[in-house]
Each structure stands twice: as C-alpha cells, then as structure tokens.
Design a protein that fits this description.
Blueprint (H helix, E strand, L loop, with lengths): L2 E5 L2 E4 L4 E8 L7 E7 L6 E6 L6 E3 L7 E6 L4 E6 L8 E8 L9 E4 L3 E6 L1
Parallel strand pairs: 2-11
Antiparallel strand pairs: 1-3, 3-8, 4-5, 4-9, 5-6, 7-8, 9-10, 9-11
Length: about 120
C-alpha cells in the first residue's frame, strides 16, 4: 500500500508560480511511476504530467508544456510539480498518483493523494 500526500497549493495571481510536492511512503518510491492530475470544478480529472522511475522519461499535457516541470527526488521519496506562468484555467485541485507504468491514462493509476487546491486569480 502506497500512501501519497500532496502539499504546496495556494492562491496566486496570473503569472505567478507554485511548487507542489508529493511525498510517498509504504513502498519503494524509486520504482514508482508518478503522475500529477487536476480536477477543476464541474470537470473530469485530467492528466497534467508524469515522470517514470527512469527519471529521463516525462510526459506533459499540451496546455502546460513550457510552464510546468515535473521532477522527483528519490532520496526524499518526493515528486514535485513546478508551475510557472500560472493562468486562471490552471485553477483546480491537483492530485498526485502512482502507477505501474508511465502513462497519461488516469485509469492506470492505482494510488492517489488527497489533493491540494491551486487557485489562480486575475
């Protein structure tokens, strides 16, 4: 059983930055493929970014490419999502999740954190 805890959300203005963190426990973090998803009010949860246990493999949804960076520190059992140039449409609850494979498909992720709220105002 993997446990994931997100933190780092908050309220920022358009153009601002936040760094989300997700700490994993319960199994070997270095073997996990990790993803970030978000869910805006009234919308389905959508893929944002993923990073493989082989750290060179990363995926992003087109809308965040060039603005968001996913990274991991295996020594700290932590995955990060650095979010720059934030836009109001980035407003959502952000969740981290783990999967056996690296994928954009939320159905492949079997463990989820509780979520952290990101609100971008204009």
């Amino acid at each position: 059983q993997v446990q994931l805890v997100e933190s780092g959300g908050g309220l920022v203005q358009t153009g601002g930055s936040l760094r989300l963190s997700c700490v994993a426990s319960g199994r070997s973090f270095s073997s996990l493929n990790m993803g970030w998803f978000r869910q805006a009010p009234g919308k389905e949860r959508e893929f944002v970014a993923a990073i493989a246990w082989t750290v060179t493999m990363t995926y992003y949804v087109d809308s965040v490419k060039g603005r968001f960076t996913i990274s991991r520190d295996n020594a700290k059992n932590t995955v990060y999502l650095q979010m720059n140039s934030l836009k109001p449409e980035d407003t959502a609850v952000y969740y981290c999740a783990s999967a056996r494979i690296i994928t954009r498909n939320k159905e492949a992720y079997d463990t989820w954190g509780q979520g952290t709220q990101v609100t971008v105002s204009s």
